[in-house]
Amino acid sequence: MDKSPQMSSPAPAPMARPDWLGLLARSRPAHLAALMPDPLPDHHLLRAPEIGAVMLRGRAGATGAPFNLGEMTVTRCSLRLSCGTVGHGYVQGRDRSHALRAAALDALLQTAEGAALQTRILTLLAAAEAEARQTRAAKAAATKVEFFTLVRGEDA
Amino acid sequence: MIAPDTLSGGLADPATDAARAFRACLTALSRPGTIVALRGAQPPAPLSIAAGTLLLTLLDGTTPIFLAPSHDTPAVRDWITFHCGAPFAPAEEAAFALGTWAALQPVIRFAIGQPDYPDRACTLIIECPALSANGPRLRGPGIKDSAHLSLPETAAFQANRALFPLGFDAFLTAGDQLAGLPRSTIVEDI
Amino acid sequence: MYVAVKGGERAIDNAHAFLAEERRGDMAVAEIGTDQIREQLRLAVNRVMAEGSLYDPDLAALAIKQARGDLIEAVFLIRAYRTTLPRLGHATPVETAQMAVTRRISATFKDAPGGQILGPTFDYTHRLLDFTLMANGEAPNAPQALTKASPVPHITTFLGRDGLIEAAQPDDTPPPDLTREPMELPASRATRLQAITRGDEGFILSLAYSTQRGYGRTHAFVGELRIGMVEVEMDIPELGFAICIGEVELTECETVNQFKGSKTEPPQFTRGYGLTFGQNERKSIAMSLVDRALRWKELGEDFTGAPAQDEEFVLMHADNVQATGFLEHIKLPHYVDFQSELELIRKLRAEAMAQNEAAE
Questions:
Q1: Which B-chain residues 156-175 have CB contacts (< 8 A) with chain C?
Q2: DSSP 3-state of C115
Q3: Which residues on chain A are in Cβ contact (under 8 Å) with B13?
Q4: pLDDT tens-digit readout, C191-217
Q5: Is residue C328 part of a domain?
Q6: What is the per-residue DSSP string for C126-171?
Q7: pLDDT tens, position by position, B15-39
Q8: B119 touching C, CB under 8 A?
């Protein structure tokens, strides 16, 4: 997947599964629910929405041996649509219905409906995320220091 | 990637079902010789319902499991990975070991804990053809006078008892039945 | 004499009711919402997440509200909650080089590639109370500058190119987890970093300060301090590939430490490392100083007896939940313990007096 967190615009090409799963993980529950209102398609729960913790790791000196940094809350869910397609949702935070919705959408995106849903839902989620990131980056950029050299040592 | 058909068979209501199953495990282990019912999981063959439910109740990402050849199948591995998240480990490093008694041999290779951490021992899950209150006599903590249980043999459990407070603990499973044999139990031939 | 007593149930219930009322304060004042705490007291939220060792701003805000702003009590609540969560697994180590930085400064290189980005900092404020915050509230609006995505490489990579700084050796040993296994001494650097990043900010700050004042001096410069969002990735077995499961704000500090060389190492710069949840730069800088001080043995330095060099002292006292639990338990009933002390003192006094009388 694209590692750059500063990705500035949503990919025009169809999004690959790892990318859409990541986008759903980071999406705001209210935004996804607005784009994909109830009722969800018929499904059988393989793993009911489950709130848990994932241990995050850093590396000593940023590139050395890993160490345990602390946990974050994650909610996951797995289901099977009546057509047999399996979807998995892993979302940040503790919102069970968000995880359920993400899993249902993951499954639907693998079906014939997928292309339409990419346009109707993923593109909008990606655009919202890109805009939020861009705004924050622009505010940070405004605090970048421009140095003016007053006197150079060798000139004095 | 895990084959979709191994993703089913978990607990229907994980919080309640796992709590009930844990209660059954406690009863089995604290009252050696008592046979309790343990249901909830629908695991892939050759896992019994009791062993599958036990795995869902006791395993997580921090409990490495050893699969003896009798139970080391892709379906069992996938099912454990999806539902428990437990990593697979060689016999010597495992917190749990699963298999038939014959397939688990030699049992002396499993961890028996350390004097300062006796809890770092392996728990064996022994799949049996059937369980009954006939067989070697059991005495010790949790047993009023004595009990009997259809153990696959006695010598190995006697040797394990001699290591106390170290040694492995064992669950025996058959169908939807569970019995426990902690390292503290004294096993005698009759 | 041992006297078994029970009671106090009603007093305890009423004390809790009184506590709830005091927490709410004057009913004429609007109740504070956890969303307000999350958004407007974010640095308190960050501290509770870092020391509670759980990244969840909503929960940290709730804990702060419930604890009436007592951050150590809030950390305690978070620690208690996290023990109820199933561990779904561990993420792959975060790539801080890929951080979307909101702040990034170097005290060692003025012209660092990627630039000096001040971000939302208290630095350069005059520390004068701003009474407008009390009067009118505010609706601030930060200026924006055009920006294009450009990489912000770690400063230490430049020094590393010339061999002027020790390399961080790539290593994928799974780290021990002190929340799962009892800490064993001597501890690995991985254990130390975990203990420090969840340790009490005040304690780590004081230890770091003590190294600056000469108790285990490490001559630290802030090579780089960066704050920003990082994506978290995790391998998902049922998928067979890794996905992003969320993003977290982190503060990372790398110190560059003067080092004249030792019996085992050539003269070069050495490094201390700090990484914490949220915008948390005091903690992160302090963490990197303490990390560096604790590395004396591996770098072949002398142990000078300084507290910050003493691994057991640092690791066994860094956790404020442990510390406050043991400290505060002495206020709970110790009637029986004290009764025996009283008996002992009476007996010793009687013996001493009898001896004095006999001597006279």
A1: none
A2: coil
A3: 48
A4: 999 999 999 999 999 999 999 999 998
A5: no
A6: -----THHHHT------------------THHHHHHTT-B------
A7: 899 999 999 999 999 999 999 999 9
A8: no
Contacts of A48 in chain B (CB under 8 A): 13-14
Q: Is the pLDDT of residue A2 over 70?
A: no
What's the pLDDT tens digit per position in A14-53? 899 999 999 999 999 999 999 999 999 999 999 999 999 9
Copy the structure tokens of residue A154. Answer: 């060798």
User: According to the model, what pLDDT value does residue A71 have?
Assistant: 98
Same domain flag for C77 and C110: no
| Domain map (residue ranges) of chain B | 11-188
Does residue B154 contact residue B188 with C-beta atoms inside 8 Å?
A: yes
- Select from B42, B44, B43, B24 the least CA-distant residue to B34: B24
Could you report the per-residue pLDDT of A79-106, keeping only the tens digit for each?
A: 999 999 999 999 999 999 999 999 999 9
Query: Cβ of B37 under 8 Å from any chain C Cβ?
Result: no
Task: Looking at the structure, tell me whether residues C190 and C45 fall in a common domain.
Answer: no
Is B82–A47 a contact, with Cβ atoms under 8 angstroms apart?
Answer: yes
Cis peptide before C186 (omega within 30 of 0): yes
Tally the domains of chain C.
3
In a domain, C116, yes or no: yes
Please tell me whether residues C235 and C345 are part of one structural domain. no
Give the number of other Cβ atoms within 10 Å of residue C180's Cβ. Answer: 11
User: Are C143 and A139 within 8 A, CB to CB?
Assistant: yes
Contact: C100, A91; criterion CB under 8 Å: no
Residues 4-33 of B with CB under 8 A from C: 7
Q: Partners for A (CB, 8 Å, 3+ pairs)?
A: B, C
Q: What is the domain range of residue C309? A: 96-123+148-169+176-318
Q: What is the CATH number of domain B11-188?
A: 3.40.50.11310
Question: What pTM, to 2 d.p., does this model score?
Answer: 0.90
Of the three residues C82, C106, C132, the one that is the final residue of a domain is C82
Q: Which residues contact C124 (CB under 8 A, 6 or more apart)?
A: C118
Chain B interface mutation, best of C238, C239, C243, highest count of B Cβ atoms under 10 Å: C238
Say whether pLDDT at B62 is over 60: yes
Query: Taking CB atoms and an 8 Å limit, are B61 and C87 in contact across chains?
Result: yes
Record: contact C94-A61, CB cut-off 8 A: no
Q: Smallest Cα–Cα separation from C197: which of C255, C252, C271, C120?
A: C252
Q: What is the pLDDT of residue C3?
A: 57
In a domain, C159, yes or no: yes
Rounded to two decimals, the ipTM of the complex is 0.92
